[in-house]
Amino acid sequence: MRVLIVENEFAELKNVFEAASLYYFESKLQYDVCGLSQHLKDYIGVTYYDYIFVDIDLSVNSAKDGYGVIFDLIYDYGVSSGNIIVMTGHNKIHEELKIKGLPALQILSKPIDMDEVYYALNGGNEL
């Protein structure tokens, strides 16, 4: 399985994804990290991803926030909303997605752990 992680502070999540890969995916979970929204085009269309994790709060150096990235993924790159997983610390994320005209998406509340990563990549099915 291959995933793209759109996150500017990936160092804080690296151990979570490494542990999930080791424990649940026999070290076969492959991932790329895109730290800035303006680099998204370097990944999408070049490599196929089963799922894309998007942090809603990207760096001020990023041209777009996570909402803009999600919009581009769905409407410019044709990524299915079922393949997008949002990572956030915001508790009103569902309302914000709706206000911005985006579909309901799978949400992981930060901080996340390896079990939540597995759960998300397993289509939301229980362990």
Automatic annotation (TrEMBL):
BP GO annotations: phosphorelay signal transduction system
What is the protein name for this chain? Answer: Response regulator receiver protein
The Response regulatory domain is annotated at 1-121
Return the InterPro entries for the record.
CheY-like_superfamily, Sig_transdc_resp-reg_receiver
Its domain of life reads Bacteria
The scientific name of the source species is Chlorobaculum parvum (strain DSM 263 / NCIMB 8327)
